[in-house]
Design goal:
Length: 136
């Protein structure tokens, strides 16, 4: 540790007091191994272990990405049948009713003017109830 506290400030510009804390954090995170041999404490890290950890993390990332895609598809499917979708369908149905009412009365008006038919005869010929006010 003493050697590390001497080398780190010179080569990497790290404050000497923080070398011990940083080393302990690396040991706690499993990035550096620590073993006490007699009175000597030895610290080491193998690049192959870091490569394995990276490969494991990449594999986990790919799995999580796949899971995210699946969950997004499920969410999209649920959005098609959720409360918002029902509200949209109801709104579309109301708009269609209004358009149908408008179209019925427009056609009746056009037929009355074009053919000179009174409304009662027109209703009878097209089986339109005489008391029909609006389609509901």
């Amino acid at each position: 540790m003493k050697e590390l506290e001497k080398i780190a400030p010179k080569q990497k510009g790290i404050v000497a007091q923080s070398v011990r804390e940083i080393t302990q954090l690396l040991v706690d995170e499993g990035l550096v191994e620590c073993e006490k041999i007699g009175t000597f404490v030895c610290y080491w890290a193998f690049p192959s272990k870091a490569a394995l950890t990276r490969a494991e993390l990449l594999s986990r990332f790919a799995d999580l990405k796949t899971k995210e895609t699946t969950l997004k598809k499920t969410l999209d499917e649920l959005a098609l049948s959720g409360p918002e979708a029902i509200a949209r369908i109801n709104k579309s149905a109301d708009e269609a009713k209004e358009a149908a009412n408008h179209n019925i009365f427009s056609i009746k008006k056009w037929c009355k003017t074009k053919f000179g038919i009174d409304e009662k005869t027109l209703n009878e010929q097209f089986d339109i109830p005489s008391d029909m006010d609006y389609v509901e």
